Each structure stands twice: as C-alpha cells, then as structure tokens.
Automatic annotation (TrEMBL):
Keyword Manganese: no
Hydrolase recorded as keyword: yes
Gene3D superfamilies: Methylpurine-DNA glycosylase (MPG)
InterPro entries: Formyl_transferase-like_C_sf, MPG, MPG_sf
Protein name: Putative 3-methyladenine DNA glycosylase
EC number: 3.2.2.-
Entry-linked NCBIfam families: 3mg
Family, similarity comment: Belongs to the DNA glycosylase MPG family.
Keyword terms of this UniProt record: DNA damage, DNA repair, Hydrolase
Organismal lineage: Bacteria, Pseudomonadati, Planctomycetota, Planctomycetia, Isosphaerales
Domain of life: Bacteria
Amino acid sequence: MDILPKSFYDRNAKEVAPELLGMHLVRTIDGVARIGRIVETEAYLGPPDLAAHSTKGLTKRTSVMYGPPGYAYVYLIYGMYHCLNMVTGPGGHASAVLVRALEPISGIDEATNGPGKLCRALKIDLRLYGHDLSGGELTVMRPKGRPEPFTIATSPRIGVDYAKEWALEPLRFTIAGNPYLSRR
C-alpha cells in the first residue's frame, strides 16, 4: 500500500472527502497495524461553513486546521469521544474532512460505525492531534491492487442542525449500502 502524499490533501475538502472513501486508515500500535477501510466522511469547508470548528477563528483547539494540509485534527466531543479529521486545502484555509466510519480490514475487533467508535477502536486520542498523516503511527493508504467498485452517496452532514443553511449542504459522503456506516 502507498501512503497518500500531502498533495492529496492540498485541495478543497469537498473534493478530498469522497476520494478518501475506499482508502485504508492505518493505526500502528506496538508494531501491530489496525486497518480499516474508510466508508463515510464529511467535508468541513473552513470559516464560512457554520458547521466547521474554524468558523469561530483561530483557537488553541483549531490551530492545526490553520496549518498545512495532511495533518490530523483530533478533538474531544461531549467530554468522552474523540473524532479524527484530516486537514485539507492550502495552509491557512482551515478546512478538514471528518472520518465518520470504517469497515474493519485487519486487527480491529470493536465497532467502527461512528467517529467516536472508530477512534476508540483504533486508540486515536488527543496525543495524535497534529500528527503528520504521511508517516508514523497513523496514516492513510491507497489499497494495493484493483479497487473494489462502489457507488458514492451524498447527503447532509449529521448533527449540525445549528449551522443554519450549512446544515442542508450535501457534504456527507458514503459508500452506498455499506453495512458499517454510522447511519444509513
């Protein structure tokens, strides 16, 4: 498998999000790889997007989003669940793609059908905030061989009703019919 280069992320989140579908998220712990196929993502388009964390500007929490693309933006919600995003766009753009669900491939025994569940299964937490996705213990890789064909479905993002007109934008991307989606 080939690790996705930083140039992959150096585009609009709306372009990157559907192209992450089918890629493998790899979390290596003590030399053992836990691998999941990305089956659901959401794009967050930067400060104008009222659902994006960066809409409130540069903060300690969002600082990695204002840096170069290809880094992990990990945050805690409800005081108990971690979520993994990949920073996209040119530096300073403050956009990202949330990974919402994985299909387990190898080394994963827990549920991965939700952003908090997949982070728990892969032991992704705030220690990986700002991690360079092009190497080390957390990477995104293109699977070897001919990819399995799939249809991409789009819908509004989940849980962003507060974001006014942005709540209705079709920025959630899924592998249609996949049994590991967070919601069908």
